């Protein structure tokens, strides 16, 4: 049997024409508690979520926790080096076991009555175990395990015991992402901001690039942001990607000189921006050739897996239900609005930025300037107190006002451009989950 190429398999994974039903995107989806609970029951508890990075769990006994709504999940590296996930709750009386985001332990011990579990979740010691009329809980009442897998240097969990494997759930996206060698990248920026809007306000924003020219004018100096030059691919499994040309100024560079930050990108690869005065449209291909020539010696082994376009362009994925991965050749970012524990009109917006360290680099260029090339600590704050990255700040500048507008009696549905088809499609997939069609 001949193996189909990735390009062929990508084509096969696309939705068919006329894929939209036209389900209305009504305002209540963004503020009703009833809809929020439907999402919890049918969506969040059935899909794969990223809980952290594999790099956070280097040795047996390393533990991380992740929260999704009011649920807390423990992920732990076992003595057998496998990573397991458990609900963060003692089986004795329901106390939360691990109270911090990251720790290292020999055993998992509840601080209430000292029940002691092994790293694989089995109860090893219960005080006064002879005093239980129903028999000793030891070896019987173990931590409740849930599905846990790794992909791309990330630890993922799923609360649905019957869910497809992570690999099957990502489908074609996993095959495409593998080329980037994400597991060799370091999370140098690790931010979470509480924002006063429903999680879908932010996810909708990442499902279209129609807003880029109005909200992110600065990106036009190095990204070709016109929709007719951008490819949109929507996959049947609910995920999608958008291919945007980088190192190519919008309109092919109206200014004669190559502008910032493209000039700095060129210098980093031993190209002189002055040589391209009046020819900014040629920079993209020149940079691709230069990266191809110098990349391997600089330690970028992933370049061998990437096509020429991927060396300069941004492949922006939206992964159902709530993640965006923006992939570049040497870095990627995760943008993720998590649902708030109780309030449908708030969310917790994660911005993680990963960089591939080249030989000997101690600094990484991030959306917030140069940061140390090392795993960052988690910084959690309220939107507006600090920057979440300048592009994300621009996106969020409309999110709160939109949340208010969605309440209006004057709003009944979105009126979408073709280039925003992913927005309606996404809501239709949510409806499919809620109605039990997926
Ligand atoms: Fe944006």
What characteristics describe this protein?
7-stranded antiparallel beta sheet, Naphthalene 1,2-dioxygenase Alpha Subunit, Chain A, domain 1, Rieske Iron-sulfur Protein, 438 residues, alpha+beta
Give the topology:
Elements: H1 6-13, H2 28-31, H3 33-44, E1 49-53, E2 62-68, E3 71-77, E4 83-87, E5 102-104, E6 108-109, E7 116-117, E8 123-125, E9 145-151, E10 154-158, H4 166-170, H5 172-177, E11 186-195, H6 199-206, H7 212-215, E12 231-234, E13 240-244, H8 262-268, H9 283-294, E14 314-319, E15 323-327, E16 331-339, E17 347-355, E18 363-366, E19 369-372, E20 379-382, H10 390-405, H11 421-434
Bound molecules: fe (ii) ion (FE2).
Q: Structural class of the helix and strand makeup?
A: alpha+beta
List the ligand species.
Answer: fe (ii) ion
Count of all domains: 2
> What integer value in Å does the Rg equal?
23 Å
* Percent of sequence in beta strands: 15-25%
Helix content: 10-25%
Shape: globular
Q: What gap, in angstroms, lies between the N and C termini?
A: 30 Å
- Mean of all residue-level pLDDT scores: 96
Instruction: Give the CATH level 1 class of the largest domain.
Output: Alpha Beta
CATH fold naming of the largest domain: Naphthalene 1,2-dioxygenase Alpha Subunit, Chain A, domain 1
**Count of discrete alpha- or pi-helical segments spanning 4 or more residues:** 11
Largest sheet: 8 strands, mixed
Strand order of the largest sheet: 12-13-14-15-16-17-11-20
Number of strands: 20
């Amino acid at each position: 049997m001949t193996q189909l190429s990735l390009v062929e398999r990508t084509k096969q994974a696309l939705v068919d024409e006329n894929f939209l039903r036209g389900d209305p995107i009504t305002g209540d989806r963004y503020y009703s508690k009833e809809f929020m609970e439907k999402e919890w029951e049918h969506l969040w508890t059935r899909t794969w979520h990223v809980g952290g990075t594999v790099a956070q769990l280097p040795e047996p006994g390393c533990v991380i926790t992740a929260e999704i709504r009011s649920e807390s999940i423990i992920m732990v590296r076992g003595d057998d080096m496998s990573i397991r996930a458990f609900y963060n709750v003692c089986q004795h009386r329901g106390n939360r076991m691990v109270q911090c985001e990251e720790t290292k332990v020999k055993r998992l011990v509840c601080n209430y009555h000292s029940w002691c579990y092994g790293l694989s979740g089995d109860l090893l010691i219960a005080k006064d175990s002879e005093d239980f009329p129903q028999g000793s809980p030891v070896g019987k009442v173990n931590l409740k395990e849930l599905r846990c897998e790794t992909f791309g240097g990330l630890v993922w969990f799923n609360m649905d015991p019957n869910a497809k494997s992570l690999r099957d759930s990502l489908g074609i996206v996993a095959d495409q992402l593998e080329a980037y060698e994400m597991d060799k990248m370091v999370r140098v920026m690790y931010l979470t901001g509480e924002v006063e809007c429903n999680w879908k306000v932010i996810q909708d924003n990442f499902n279209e690039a129609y807003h880029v020219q109005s909200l992110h004018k600065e990106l036009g100096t190095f990204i070709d942001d016109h929709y007719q030059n951008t490819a949109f691919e929507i996959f049947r499994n609910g995920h999608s990607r958008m291919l945007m040309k980088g190192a190519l100024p919008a309109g092919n560079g109206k200014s004669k000189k190559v502008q910032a930050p493209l000039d700095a990108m060129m210098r980093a690869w031993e190209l002189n921006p002055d040589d391209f005065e009046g020819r900014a449209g040629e920079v993209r291909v020149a940079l691709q050739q230069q990266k191809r020539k110098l990349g391997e010696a600089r330690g970028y082994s992933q370049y061998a897996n990437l096509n020429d376009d991927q060396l300069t362009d941004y492949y922006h994925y939206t992964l159902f239900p709530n993640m965006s991965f923006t992939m570049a050749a040497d870095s990627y970012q995760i943008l993720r609005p998590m649902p708030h524990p109780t309030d449908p009109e708030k969310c917790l917006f994660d911005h993680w930025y990963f960089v591939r360290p080249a030989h000997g680099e101690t600094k990484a260029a991030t959306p917030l300037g140069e940061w140390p090339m090392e795993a960052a600590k988690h910084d959690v704050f309220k939107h507006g107190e600090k920057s979440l990255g300048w592009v994300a700040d621009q996106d969020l500048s409309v999110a709160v006002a939109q949340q208010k507008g969605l309440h209006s009696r004057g709003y009944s549905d979105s009126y979408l451009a073709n280039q925003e088809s992913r927005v309606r499609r996404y809501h239709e997939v949510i409806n499919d989950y809620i109605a039990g069609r997926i």
